[in-house]
Amino acid sequence: RCTVDDRVTRVAWLNRSTILYAGNDKWSIDNRVVILSNTKTQYSIKIHNVDVYDEGPYTCSVQTDNHPKT
């Protein structure tokens, strides 16, 4: 789950350097990865049937007024 506010102009979920979602656009070919919410306050994904190979850093990346943050 990633908490966002109304200053956020763009959002993305990444695993290592791989983009899973950019806004509502799915970049991952893995059918188990789904977006749960993309609202003004929350940007969340879910991985169904998670296993050990899914381990690793997951990053919510946001852009506010052309300033990227993670």
UniProtKB/TrEMBL annotation:
Membrane as UniProt keyword: yes
Keyword entries, A-Z: Cell adhesion, Cell membrane, Disulfide bond, Glycoprotein, GPI-anchor, Immunoglobulin domain, Lipoprotein, Membrane, Repeat, Signal
Membrane topology annotation: Lipid-anchor; GPI-anchor
Gene Ontology biological process terms from the UniProt entry: cell adhesion
Keyword Mitochondrion applies: no
Ranges where the Ig-like domain occurs: 1-70
GO cellular component annotations of the record: plasma membrane; side of membrane
Superkingdom of origin organism: Eukaryota
Major location (coarse): membrane
Subcellular location: Cell membrane
Matching Gene3D superfamilies: Immunoglobulins
Protein name: Ig-like domain-containing protein
